[in-house]
Amino acid sequence: MARGQRSTPAGGHLPVLLEEVLAALAPAEGGTIVDCTVGWGGHARELLRRVGPTGRVIGFDLDADNLPRARARLEEAGTNFALHHGNFAGIAAALAMEGIVAVDGVLADLGMSSMQVDDAERGFSYSRDGPLDMRMDRTRGRPASEVLATIDQAELARALRELGDEPAAEKIAAAIVAARQRAPLLRTSDLAKVLLEANQAGRSAAWRLRPAAGKWELHPAARTFQALRILVNRELANLEQLLRVLPGLLKPGGRAAIISFHSGEDRLVKNAFRDGERAGTYAEVAGEPERAGQAERFANPRSRSAKLRWARRA
């Protein structure tokens, strides 16, 4: 993505795999649906329309900045919703406070919204200079700059390999450690420069997004930025907790849909659903993940790596 280019049009929001989510959850009039990662409310608004005035949508988001925007979008579809600032790992306790024992559907979109990436001050983008933060909840935890300043080289390499699918994890970890010894890595541009230089070493041609017609090449910083974001926000641990409590949240016949963007996330979801089906907890699970079609991939580049898996409670 070119510097300054937005991943969606200014002010835009394109919920990933929307039709596939609606088909997987099959929201019906009067149902109660939980959106664990409400974002700007793209999925939640359509779910709210389908459950109607007798149904309810409960939304959660770790990023408090998303909630006012989500509220405005949901109000276009109805008033029977509630929004909570918090991690979806604590969803069971929050639902109990709402007086809800079990629900008809649960959605979790594990990716980031385009608007978070487009905001340079959040530090998620390798193509926009800003503070190297990456926290979903800026009221707690350590920013990515602090994590990079102290993390052991071997641990960093492991995170890059396991959380970013980075084939050159050891080389990149060594480059980051060498760079931080020269000067602190405080801004996204500081880190992106190190990653670009490390990945270009030994290559005859400079990186290009589209090196040939019909071919896309991932930015050299993309995998590392993804791994750091997952590490900073403890995203895999939170997902594991959600998968543990998920069966207890669903009514008999209730449905869950989870959209992942990384092989580690998808593997956790696949294994949890498969094990649940074998144990008789789930009556049916997705055989293969659903992917975005060509038209959606063109309209919304974020959808290219999205995988949707679903499960139906026994």
Strands, helices and their partners?
Elements: H1 18-25, E1 32-35, H2 42-51, E2 56-61, H3 66-74, E3 81-85, H4 91-97, E4 103-109, H5 114-118, H6 144-150, H7 153-164, H8 169-182, H9 188-200, H10 222-232, H11 235-249, E5 250-260, H12 263-279, E6 282-285, H13 294-299, E7 307-313
Parallel strand pairs: 1-2, 1-4, 2-3, 4-5
Antiparallel strand pairs: 5-7, 6-7
Helix pairs in contact: 7-8, 7-10, 8-9, 11-12
Assembly state:
single chain
What is the ordering of alpha helices and beta strands? HEHEHEHEHHHHHHHEHEHE
Could you name the ranges where pLDDT drops below 50 across 5 or more consecutive residues? 1-11
Q: Total number of helical segments?
A: 13
